[in-house]
Amino acid sequence: VRRFVKDATYYHLTNQPRRDGTLERYAAFQYVRADDAESLLAIFRMPGAKKARRIPVLAVDVTASYQLTWLGDNRTRVVTGAVLSAGLWCDDLSEPGSALIHITRLHANA
Q1: How much is the pLDDT for 21?
Q2: Cα 73 from chain centroid?
Q3: What pTM, to 2 d.p., does this model score?
């Protein structure tokens, strides 16, 4: 995580939640490395949030494949850039809950 915070570009992916429970009930941000080959996605589900939400993901090459690794439980999934560029469907977080996902570009698809 340290190398992302130190060297990557930071992006807000959702509006900032408010303490009074208004606006967004999910908070998400992404650190993207300069070569776009790796990023770190953080998602937070706040109290009162809907069960599921699509989270936008930036710096995705639609011709590549990506490995997503959920840090903490080491769950992995490989998806195409075309699928990932449409956003990551988030429907498995507790309320409140969070996920930290390492995204690695694997290769360009033929």
Answers
A1: 67
A2: 15
A3: 0.89
